[in-house]
Request: fold
Amino acid sequence: MIGISYIMFVGELLLAAIFLFAVVVGIRSWLWKVVWPVAAGSLWYFVGSFYAFPLMILVVLRIATTVASTAQSPPAKDGV
Amino acid sequence: MKSAGGVALHQYDAARVRIWMLWGGRILSAFGVLICLSSVYAKLTHNAGYVRQWESLGYSEGMLTGVGLVQLSAIVLYLIPPTSVLGTVVLTGYLGGAISSWVRLGQPTPMMVPLSTCLLLWAGLYLREERLQSLLPLRKKTAP
Reply:
C-alpha cells in the first residue's frame, strides 16, 4: 500500500500544477495572476496545505467554468 | 477577446477546453479518492496511530471495520460512472460526520482534511460532468 505521505506529495504537486496552469492560461489580468498564487502560497506556507486547497479548488472551478462558457466550437467545414 | 471578472479572455477552442477540464477533473478525483482509500486502509488494518486518533474522537475501536467498509462502499459508488453523483453525496455525508467530530473537539486543523477531501471529490466530478455544471452553475449567464 502506498503511504499517505507519498499520495499527499504527488497530489499536492498535481493540484498546484493544475492551479498554476489555470491561473496563467485562464486569467488575463496580471494583478489576479499574481494575487491568487500569492494568496494560496501564503495559506499553504503559514497554516498548511489543507487550508490552501479550498481556495485553489474554487479558483480552478471559477476559471474552468468561465473559460468553458466563453469557448467557441470551430465552424463546420461545409459552413452549416 | 472578452473579459469576465478578470477571468477568461481569449476565444478558446471548446473541444480543447473540454479535454483539459476532463483530465483536470480526473486528477482531482484521483487525489480525493486516494486520500479516502488511505483512510480506509488504516481503518481496516487497525493501524495503531489511526486507532489512537479514532479513540480520541470518542469512538470505540470495534466500530473501525464497519465504518471503513461503509467508506469503501461510498468510494466504489463514486468510482462507478453511473453512480458517481450518488457516491459523491454519500461521501459528503460521511466526511461531514468527520468534520463534525473534529469541530466538536475544537480542533480546526484536522477538520480541514475531510473538508478539503470533500471539495476535491466534488471539484473532480464537477469538471468531468457537464450536466452537473448545468445543474450547479458557478456564474450567471450574461445577458445577450
